[in-house]
Design brief:
Structural class of chain B: mainly alpha
Helix content of chain A: 10-25%
Number of helices of chain B: 7
Strand content of chain A: 15-25%
Shape of chain A: globular
CATH architecture of one domain in chain A: 3-Layer(bba) Sandwich
CATH class of one domain in chain A: Alpha Beta
Oligomer: heterodimer
CATH superfamily of one domain in chain A: FAD/NAD(P)-binding domain
Number of strands of chain B: 0
Largest sheet of chain B: none
Shape of chain B: elongated
Order of helices and strands of chain B: HHHHHHH
Distance between the termini of chain A: 29 Å
Radius of gyration of chain B: 25 Å
Distance between the termini of chain B: 59 Å
Strand content of chain B: under 5%
Helix content of chain B: 40-55%
Radius of gyration of chain A: 22 Å
């Protein structure tokens, strides 16, 4: 024990991270009446803190509400060395985690996503399937408050509790084009309230969902799961940065060492430790938790901790129509298409992608992104061209499935550290040939759709400035301890009182935004734990 | 409005910034808007530099270097050509310079009003989003399910 280290009272369950999965598992386990503590390295974010309260609402998405921790640089953030990655890391460190700054697009994985080896002969099947998760998807939809429309032929049946977001002018433009092409489209499921729902008011269209919703219409776990979990007795302690998970003489997790807001070192003992730090933060923590018994990092006998990182390459194709639309004055999410989701061998790649149809953006972002792509000139033509762009933008994101490859990985940077001296994560990541073919296919289809919608000045960004921030696969699930880090219900093969519930346990990535599946999986693991309480460590 | 009130640029750098910003986004009587060298906008830019101060300073120095310290005295065509060349080749400092200028310019009341925008933050008033024509979905509603059902009971159905 270090000098001056404070030793806290033992808890039954210690959860590290209060984001999508940490909140869900805390709420679910609360009914056990166990003593549950969650340590979160960031702060609560007040609704008055969000950018859309002020006139600098757009500029702040490039500063203190940037989705890149390196750019954001809050003292609650940790740096990430992503120099050797074509995609950059995005996250948010605060109560609610990434749900504070996501777009609230809410597709589920498809059944085929859990059976990629059996159906398509690539990667590995998951040890759970869609149908085991289905009721947890439904439960999570109720908890987060989802808007959408039942009856979509492109996805398994589900019944969102609130109506879909209006199509608006932008959605109509897309829908007409998709109907002419004969391709599937459907209004997106989102976690944006379209009616009053569980204390949240219906969305008033601030149009700036990603860097936090000042109104609270967008679900993030700080306003959905956490108030209920805290009311049920869970303790959430903020500004607590965990350095390492320690183990005892039996090879079981003993607790964690963390630093509080004043930099004081604490030891927090626990009977069960649950890691919910995302696909970069979790391997970082495990790799930093070395000991004589676990010299290569905790739960890493397979050598797979940190490997198989999947980031979801996400090309965006944009263009401009001849009609003023509703960009910047409504949620960016509009609709999706599953036309190219399931594998078709004729396309020259396996697996597939979702097309995500977006609304345009506000005046500053239009200018910044258009200048960066060369569409908006400087000088005497600036004003004329800007008036042809602002308000007229349409864009489609291509959410490509990223297959696991061991060379895509998170390791510990030998030099870079956070402000507590904890080694920072380093990312090595390249895009595979299969994914590149998928990206080009998706870009071509998006260009075809936008052209059909009457758009010109098309531009394709293959890797965008701010990547989607989906951090997956670095502590994968599986039945075989030599080929996976956790078992089929989230327990580490090597340490029987250590669980992982975040996106790092994903086996493959699907071609969808991951949060609904991350949370459904966390609820599933919590349910498994509750069913096995008497034999949890057997 | 800025995220950091740290005093940063020297008086000479502010003058350079004014000349550069006014070249990048000039005043336009035709569109009824000031240039980015307008005193109020320039002040907003300077107050908003925050963490970008070092790279913006580097951008100003690079442009000064490319113009031999005579940017303000150059003809407009040459100034614009220099800016175009620098913006496409100048890397992070150039992008940061553009971002802070655009960020301040397109939140100025006069600029927003000329764009027929309301000069206000999104919250608390928000905006109205029309429903749109939901009958467009009729073309899709009647498609048979086409997601792959992996359950044994589904075998042979699709």
């Amino acid at each position: 024990m270090a000098q001056n280290q404070r030793v806290n009272e033992r808890v039954d369950v210690l959860i590290i991270g209060s984001g999508a999965s940490g909140a869900a598992v805390a709420w679910s386990l609360a009914e056990t009446r166990m003593r549950i503590l969650c340590l979160e390295q960031g702060d609560w974010v007040r609704s008055t803190d969000f950018p859309s309260n002020g006139r600098d609402w757009e500029a702040r998405r490039y500063t203190d509400f940037d989705i890149s921790p390196n750019r954001r640089g809050r003292d609650t953030d940790y740096p990430v060395n992503d120099d050797n990655s074509v995609m950059k890391i995005a996250n948010f460190n605060g109560v609610g985690g990434g749900t504070v700054i996501y777009t609230a697009h809410w597709p589920r994985m498809h059944p085929s996503d859990f059976r990629v080896r059996s159906l398509d002969g690539v990667a590995d099947d998951w040890p759970v399937d869609y149908w085991a998760l289905e009721r947890f998807y439904d439960e999570n939809d109720r908890m987060m408050g989802v808007s959408g429309l039942a009856g979509d032929p492109g996805v398994p049946p589900r019944n969102p509790p609130m109506p879909a977001i209006p199509l608006g002018k932008t959605g109509v433009r897309y829908a007409q084009a998709m109907n002419r092409l004969g391709w599937h489209w459907w209004p997106s499921d989102t976690t944006i309230a379209t009616t009053d729902y569980d204390g949240r008011a219906a969305c008033i269209n601030l149009g700036h969902c990603t860097p936090g919703c000042a109104q609270g219409a967008k679900a993030s776990t700080d306003i959905t799961y956490w108030p209920l979990a805290i009311r049920a007795g869970v303790e959430l302690r903020t500004r607590c940065r965990v350095r390492e998970i320690t183990t005892n003489e039996h090879g079981m997790a003993a607790g964690v060492v963390y630093y509080d807001a004043d930099g004081r070192e604490h030891f927090q003992p626990a009977e069960v430790v649950i890691v919910a730090c995302n696909g970069v933060g979790t391997p970082r923590l495990l790799l930093n938790s070395t000991s004589a018994r676990f010299p290569n990092g905790l739960a890493n006998s397979s050598g797979l901790v940190g490997k198989n990182l999947m980031l979801h390459p996400w090309p965006i194709v944009s263009g401009y129509v001849d009609e003023a639309l509703d960009g910047g004055r409504a949620p960016i999410t509009s609709m999706w298409s599953k036309q190219f989701y399931e594998t078709d061998p004729e396309r020259g790649f396996v697996r597939g992608y979702t097309l995500q149809f977006n609304r345009g953006t506000g005046p500053v972002n239009e200018a910044i992104t258009s200048a960066a792509t060369g569409r908006l000139p400087w000088g005497r033509d600036h004003h004329r061209v800007y008036r042809e762009l602002f308000g007229y933008r349409v864009s489609i994101g291509v959410a490509c499935e990223d297959l696991p490859e061991e060379h895509n990985r998170v390791t510990l940077d030998p030099v870079l550290k956070d402000r507590h001296g904890i080694p920072a994560p380093r990312i090595d990541y390249t895009i595979s040939e299969n994914t590149r073919r998928m990206m080009e296919h998706g870009i071509a289809r998006a260009q075809q759709i936008l052209t059909e919608a009457g758009a010109t000045r098309l531009h394709a960004s293959r890797t965008v400035l701010n990547s989607p921030g989906h951090l997956l696969g670095t502590a994968r699930m599986g039945e075989d301890p030599e080929r996976s880090v956790v078992n089929a219900w989230g327990r580490c093969h090597d340490v029987k009182n250590l669980f992982i519930v975040d996106g790092s346990i994903w086996v493959t990535s699907g071609g969808v935004n991951p949060t609904s599946t991350i949370q459904a999986l966390a609820l599933y693991i919590a349910d498994q734990m509750k069913q096995r309480l008497a034999t949890l460590f057997d | 409005m800025g995220d950091n009130a740290e005093p940063g640029l020297s008086a000479a750098e502010i003058r350079d910034l004014r000349d550069i910003a006014g070249t990048m986004i000039p005043e336009s009587p035709e569109h009824g808007v000031p240039g980015a060298d307008d005193p109020a906008i320039l002040d907003d830019i300077a107050r908003s530099l925050g963490r970008d101060l070092p790279v913006v300073r580097a951008a100003l120095a690079a442009i000064a270097g490319k113009s031999g310290g005579a940017f303000a005295g150059m003809e407009r065509d040459r100034r614009e050509a220099l800016i175009d060349d620098y913006y496409t080749s100048g890397g992070a400092p150039a992008v940061a310079l553009g971002r802070v200028i655009l960020g301040a310019y397109y939140r100025d009341d006069r600029v927003l009003l000329a764009l027929k925008m309301e000069a206000r933050p999104p919250f608390p008033k928000g905006y109205t989003l029309e429903q749109g024509d939901w009958s467009l979905l009729d073309a899709v509603r009647h498609r048979p399910p086409f997601w792959r059902d992996d359950r044994p009971s589904a075998a042979g159905k699709r």
